[in-house]
Design goal:
With 402 residues, the chain is an alpha+beta fold. The chain has one domain: 3-Layer(bba) Sandwich (FAD/NAD(P)-binding domain), CATH 3.50.50.60. It is 36% helix and 32% strand. The strands form three sheets. Strands 5, 6, 12, 13, 14, 15, 16, 17 and 20 form a nine-stranded mixed β-sheet that branches. A hairpin with a 2-residue loop joins β18 and β19. It is globular and about 60 Å long. The protein starts with a strand and ends with a helix. Flavin-adenine dinucleotide binds next to α1, β3, β9, β12 and α8. This is 2-octaprenyl-6-methoxyphenyl hydroxylase. InterPro entries: FAD-bd, FAD/NAD-bd_sf, Ubi_Hdrlase_CS, UbiH, UbiH/COQ6, UbiH/COQ6_monooxygenase. Pathway: Cofactor biosynthesis; ubiquinone biosynthesis. Its cofactor is FAD. It comes from Kangiella spongicola.
């Protein structure tokens, strides 16, 4: 590790690691401090969960030079099917209707971690990845910033022009900078696991709204499906610990028979669902990306996709800068990210509230909406743009895959 770097990234999870690669691609050197080694079971970002990547995110990752590696370990989404339990209305979107080969892809978080880390080794000239290394303190002046990092039980200091906080939704350093974060507790938890079904998934992703909350079944490699099932907080533990056959039966009841019987259920886990939005993305020479900036309900699978868009805009702005912590550059980042953040948070929160309520008039509205989305061309086109991650002004990296 050196004494000083142009950019220091706190947190080497999905957002921090992707940013390091994006900067390296533009010839900007950085250090990444990550509290957990990739191989540790407790690594909180690259765990057993899965992430649905939009077409725009696949473009961003392709521009980072990892398209083939991602394609090898992910599964394409070719159709999205949205429905509601107990109603006949549904919306369906197919890749061919949008003139694309796939609408997105699904990848296990730990596989994404492996791909990003393998790519680091080809960028050793630009990326110093230090883990386990926990950033404890941060101070800044007009000319630069300093981090105090705990490495092997020793406190070390590093100087930098720009500190990027990619340290997750709780972001202790965001709190140290006195940046407030607006929190919405949905009082629900996501029960997640991978599973196998009697019938092949044929690259279909399903979003189904049930009386208790929405569930998503996403196509995974080796003919598995990844489940994200929102449940009221007080029921989540019960769903994690109930016997496998009982869980499979409950899920078959909620999901229906589109994939036949559930034949195998993998390890189940639950995650409390809280939405947060930092009041600002910039303080002095510090910027926020990924979950440190905002975290979302996973109903629309948008959290990391939004974080990747933070990263692509930030890396584009930094590529022309003389001082990476320059006030004007960082303020431009803040203003360029505003509408995408607000729109995505609003859509996600509205979906979470609209589709987690069993009140009859709302149920009727939902059903009409689903039908409209399927048959009204303009509604379908908006649905397609949102699903593929193109429903906002895009960065250069997201627009094309080369
Ligand atoms: C159930 C569920 C399903 C989801 N599905 C999707 C989906 O389908 N599509 C999608 O786009 N998004 C999805 N998401 C959201 C996605 O998982 C997050 O947006 C993403 O993990 C955020 O990554 P991050 O790197 O910003 O934060 P994190 O993953 O929280 O990583 C933060 C990293 O910072 C490190 N760190 C923290 N503090 C320090 C410190 N002081 N020093 C050094 N390191 C530190 C941590 O160890 C960690 O590795 C889902 C989320 C959940 C809960």
């Amino acid at each position: 590790m050196k004494d000083s770097y142009p950019v220091a990234i706190v947190g080497g999870g999905m957002a921090g690691a992707s940013l390091a690669l994006a900067l390296a691609k533009r010839g900007i050197a950085c250090v990444v401090f990550e509290a957990f080694a990739l191989s540790e079971q407790s690594q909180p970002s690259f765990d057993d969960r899965t992430v649905a990547l939009s077409k725009a995110s696949l473009n961003i990752l392709a521009n980072l030079g990892i398209a083939e590696e991602i394609a090898r370990v992910s599964e394409a989404i070719k159709t999205i099917h949205v429905s509601e339990q107990g109603h006949i209305g549904f919306a369906r979107l197919a890749a061919e209707e949008c003139d694309v080969e796939q609408l997105g892809a699904v990848i296990e978080n730990w596989q994404l971690g492996k791909v990003l880390h393998q790519a680091f080794s080809k960028q050793a000239e630009y990326i110093d990845y230090v883990a386990p290394a926990k950033v404890l303190e941060l101070s800044q002046s007009h000319d630069g910033a300093e981090l105090t990092v705990e490495i092997d039980g020793q406190a070390e200091t590093v100087e930098t022009q720009l500190v990027v906080l990619a340290d997750g939704a709780r972001s202790p350093l965001r709190q140290k900078l006195h940046i407030d974060s607006e929190q919405r507790d949905f009082e629900t938890a996501a029960v997640v696991c991978n599973l196998s079904t009697q019938l092949p998934h044929r690259n279909q992703a399903f979003e189904r709204f049930t009386a208790d909350g929405p569930l998503a079944l996403l196509p995974l490699s080796r003919q598995r499906m990844a489940l994200v099932w929102s449940k009221p907080q007080h029921q989540a533990e019960h769903y994690v610990s109930m016997p496998e056959n009982e869980f499979a039966k409950e899920l078959e009841h909620a999901f229906g028979a589109r994939l036949g019987r559930i034949t195998k259920v993998g390890k189940r886990q639950s995650f409390p669902l809280v939405q947060s939005k930092a009041e600002t993305l910039v303080r002095g020479r510090c910027v926020l990306v990924g979950n440190a900036a905002q975290s979302l309900h996973p109903i629309a699978g948008q959290g990391f996709n939004l974080g990747l868009r933070d990263i692509s805009v930030l890396s584009e702005l930094l590529s022309g800068a003389e001082d990476y912590g320059d006030f004007h550059v960082l303020n431009q980042y803040q203003s360029l990210r505003q509408s995408d953040r607000e729109q995505t948070l609003w859509v996600t929160e509205s979906l979470a509230r609209l589709f987690s309520n069993d009140w009859a008039p709302l149920s009727l509205t939902r059903n009409l909406l689903l039908k409209a989305m399927d048959i009204v061309p303009s509604a379908k086109s908006i649905f397609a743009q949102q699903a593929m991650g193109f429903g906002f002004k895009n960065s250069e990296l997201a627009a094309n895959d080369e």
